[in-house]
Design brief:
The chain is mostly helical. It is 73% helix and 0% strand.
């Protein structure tokens, strides 16, 4: 039930905005954190993954609301939980979020480094995540002035775009990363 609630909260962000979605995510995070203290060991990995997923969402929503400190704190918590259970997808996604935060702060070199760390998990990730990680890497590279390298990375991202395979990766991290989304970054404003 908490996992289905997460999907609804993500949709709330699209419909009602990040402030409304963050209220729900915060309530659910409190519930999940309480659950972590009581969950039997056999169920702990699933509960920790859910906690990491909610924490990463809190990071992104706080970042959207320009609360960078809370965004960074939740990204680090998501990473900590993901690493506790050696979950490659959640670990990569938390690092991806950290790279986005560094980029927003104008820390371009650190954003590139974080994006490259996230790409270490590439072979274990779903296709849309692989595309999204590459878009972030390209965006960070452009921030350092590496525009040609950024364009090559965007070209590569197309291989993994969410619309390159039949079926819809609904709710999957990176499911927004379609060929059109990738091209928006190619033609977008600075740092490209």
């Amino acid at each position: 039930m908490l996992r289905e609630e997460w999907h609804l909260l993500v949709q709330n962000d699209k419909t009602f905005g990040p402030e409304y979605a963050l209220m729900g995510v915060s309530r659910q995070l409190a519930t999940v954190e309480a659950l972590l203290r009581e969950v039997p060991q056999t169920l702990r990995p699933a509960a920790v993954r859910l906690a990491a997923q909610y924490a990463e969402s809190a990071a992104w929503l706080n970042q959207s609301l320009n609360d960078h400190y809370a965004g960074q704190r939740w990204a680090q918590q998501a990473l900590s939980w993901a690493q506790q259970i050696a979950d490659p997808a959640m670990t990569a996604w938390a690092i991806y979020r950290s790279s986005q935060q560094r980029l927003a702060a104008g820390q371009f070199t650190q954003a590139v480094e974080q994006a490259e760390v996230a790409l270490h998990y590439d072979q274990k990730l779903p296709r849309p995540m692989r595309a999204a990680l590459r878009v972030q890497h390209a965006h960070a590279l452009a921030g350092t002035g590496e525009h040609r390298a950024a364009m090559r990375v965007l070209d590569d991202a197309h291989h993994w775009a969410a619309d390159r395979r039949p079926g819809k990766p609904e709710g999957e991290h990176g499911s927004y990363c379609t060929s059109g989304y990738i091209e928006v970054y190619r033609g977008g404003p600075a740092p490209f």
